[in-house]
């Protein structure tokens, strides 16, 4: 404590601390930074840009909830899901993907084998409705050739961790989405849930969803 008092009493300490605080606020919230800006860092505070949306109504005490928007990086696991069609890119130029979990991939493979349909695919579509504004629906589909797809449709395929090389054929666990649905679900996981009341494919961990209902299929999007 004595050391802190000694530093604080130094003639230049106030300027240093004030500049540091302004820089920190400039990195987090330019609007707040304007109230604490010194002449030396006024320009940097005004030009600071954030990958966050700050919602004033979500302040709790001294903490603010920062909602990150359109900043998604592909995790190592998500790279195991590849696009068999032309990659769709977001506004930052990054490929939009969903992660097919090993559990979902195993179930998709089982359905393909039982039905003797190597082209089997899980189709996922987002549409307006549900208790939160949007909902996704899953249906069984079959993709014999990529040429049979609509222009805005894409196919994502699971690649096993043990694979020595990436197989880009249609003969594997895969999902089909239209581009609008992909944009609403990018970064999500497609999982297979097993419960006493039944089993189902489910989209989880959607980074673009702000709220969701108990059923898991209805959600609202961050704006």
TrEMBL record:
GO terms for cellular component: mitochondrion. GO terms for molecular function: 2 iron, 2 sulfur cluster binding; 4 iron, 4 sulfur cluster binding; iron ion binding. InterPro entries: ATAP, ATAP_core_dom, HesB-like_dom_sf. Residues 96-216 form the Core domain. Belongs to the HesB/IscA family. Pfam families: Fe-S_biosyn (PF01521). It comes from Parascedosporium putredinis. It comes from the Eukaryota. This is Core domain-containing protein. GO terms for biological process: iron-sulfur cluster assembly.
